[in-house]
Amino acid sequence: MKKKITVIALTAVFSLSLGTSVFAQEVPSQDATSESINLQNIPTREGGEITTLALWNVVTNQGYQGLSYGAWVDGVSGPGPGTLTLSKTVSVSNTYSGTLTAKVDDITAAVGFSISATNSTTASYSIKVPNGKKYKIRYRPVYQMYKATQYTYSTDVGSSVLLSTDVIYPKKYAYLEYDYVEIK
Fold first, then answer.
1. Pairing between strand 54-69 and 134-156?
2. Which H or E run contains 10?
3. Is the pLDDT of residue 141 over 70?
């Protein structure tokens, strides 16, 4: 039995006052000769005919969660006695952890910053190295971490069904942190 699918295209963006954003996403129309849409996770009406289908996301900002730290990056190393100085331009980016199921723009609207923004900054740090020692300066990015919940819904003739709930942790670059270690 073939399933007939008629799709309405929705393009809507709603911002609600509590940091909640609702997004509708266009779903391409399918005809009987094209590949079928995978209906495994999408509810169908009795009889197997879907008359209207829209997939949309609600992204809620759960707020600031604290600081998150990136991996250490080696800067410069050198022996003493003297001053060891790191001064270089580095690329820094906002990022996220978790499963991204909504569009990047949906997350941006909910948390107020782009999770894909990239900038450059200067890594700058100095340390006095004693005679007979060798030090290495390293640095890492520090992020302000937020929590957002992504809800994906399907709408079939006026009834909405929650398909999935996924958490993502958007991370906004804040500053570079520095450290030094002795090289043996």
1. antiparallel
2. none
3. yes
Q: Residue 135 corresponds to which amino acid?
A: Y
Return d(Cα 156, Cα 136) in angstroms, integer.
61
What are the CA-CA distances from residue 7 to residues 10, 48, 62, 136 (Å)? 9, 15, 32, 60
CA 45 to chain centre: 34
Domain 13-182 falls under CATH 2.170.15: yes
Supply the pTM of this predicted model: 0.70
According to the model, what pLDDT value does residue 46 have? Answer: 54
Mean pLDDT along residues 97-109: 94
Three-state SS letters, 126-181? EEEECCCCEEEEEEEEEEEEEEEEEEEEEEECCEEEEEEEEEEEEEEEEEEEEEEE
Model confidence at 131, pLDDT cuts 50, 70, 90, reads: very high
Domain ranges of the chain: 13-182
CB 87 within 8 A of CB 8: no
